[in-house]
Amino acid sequence: MRHGKKFNHLGRTASHRKALLMNLAISLIEHKRINTTVAKARELKKYIEPLVTKSKVDSTHNRRTVFAYLHSKEAVTELFREVAVKVGDRPGGYTRIIKTGNRLGDNAEMCLIELVDFNELYGADKAAKKNTRRSRKKADVETVATPVAEGVEETPVAVEEASSAAEETPVAEEKTEE
């Protein structure tokens, strides 16, 4: 029966579970993504999201509170310096769980848990979507083509073409004079 079982105990004693979550949280902060089982990732998400929220306000009290959960000066420093800066405007949901299939040995469900704002692949898609409006593409092409056509701004390719054309023209003129 699961009477009074409010969270997943992960088959460990309380002290072992606390140490496990602490080590997973430190690894996630340092490496920005880790590979683990889905059950551990879900518990880690509940463990680390309040710590990231506390890191938004850099005060001595918040640093000591987070240190009580992590026991690692390096992880606390990185959380308050790098992670808090990137997630400052995000209201929550700092981690993402991506299922990767089952482990070969015991068929455990595996996943990748990562900090959301540190994934360059998803960030690149958002930037590309913002810049792919058709009306802007035509306007950008005209503005780029105009300075090159007028000779105001020369690119290295245009300079090379101009120099090769200049080299060919004196030879052609000499042949016509003879």
Describe this structure in words.
- With 178 residues, the protein is mainly alpha-helical.
- The protein has 2 domains: 104 residues, Ribosomal protein L17 (50s Ribosomal Protein L17, Chain: A, Alpha-Beta Complex), CATH 3.90.1030.10; 45 residues, no CATH class.
- The chain is 62% helix and 11% strand.
- The protein has a 3-stranded antiparallel β-sheet.
- It is globular and about 60 Å long.
- The N and C termini lie far apart (106 Å).
Q: Could you give a quick summary of the protein structure above?
A:
With 178 residues, the protein is mainly alpha-helical. 62% of the residues lie in helices and 11% in strands.
What features would you highlight for this structure?
178 residues; 50s Ribosomal Protein L17, Chain: A; 2 domains; 3-stranded antiparallel beta sheet
